[in-house]
């Protein structure tokens, strides 16, 4: 729709190579061994977080969000919580409903009892040590600052 196309396939393609399902809050679906739940999270435009389960392993992904109940629900008990921390306290914390600070990401991880917090979505103009330190002040579990091309394992 954004590209003013009709149907689910790009111009010049005669069939869809995959199924397309719009996301919605509380949507649940399965892909292979993965059970996936989406939750609408707090952001100025429609945005979703994901909870992905395979066997006993759980990966939660915040998507773009600020603190909200849906984020806590997604992260609850996750083995790995991939969480954005695009803002920092004292500089960006006056903006609410857009992104988490490192501190707010750490607080969400602590409330949810996650096994491992992995911070991501750090803008180029932010020293990654700042959101990391903010998260470490409020979350005592393991925390990783995600870098490009990192591979993170979900361990139970």
How would you characterize this protein structure?
This protein is of the alpha/beta class and 156 residues long. The protein has one domain (28-145): Ribonuclease Z/Hydroxyacylglutathione hydrolase-like (Metallo-beta-lactamase, Chain A). Helices cover 18% and strands 23% of the residues. The protein contains 3 helices and 7 strands. It has helices at 69-75, 102-112, 129-138; strands at residues 28-31, 34-40, 48-54, 57-61, 80-84, 116-120, 143-145. The protein has a 7-stranded mixed beta sheet, with helices on one face. β2 (34-40) and β3 form a beta hairpin. α2 (102-112) runs parallel beside α3. The model has no long low-confidence stretch (mean pLDDT 91).
The helix count comes to: 3
How many discrete domains?
1
Task: Report the CATH C-level class.
Answer: Alpha Beta
* Fold-level CATH name: Metallo-beta-lactamase, Chain A
Largest sheet: 7 strands, mixed
Low confidence ranges: none
Strand order of the largest sheet: 1-2-3-4-5-6-7
Derived from helix and strand composition plus strand pairing, the structural class reads alpha/beta
Which H/E pattern describes the elements? EEEEHEHEHE
Distance between the termini: 40 Å
Overall, the morphology is globular
Number of strands: 7
CATH homology superfamily name: Ribonuclease Z/Hydroxyacylglutathione hydrolase-like
Per CATH, which architecture? 4-Layer Sandwich
Helix content: 10-25%
Instruction: Look at the structure and give the mean pLDDT.
Output: 91
Any idea what the radius of gyration is? 17 Å
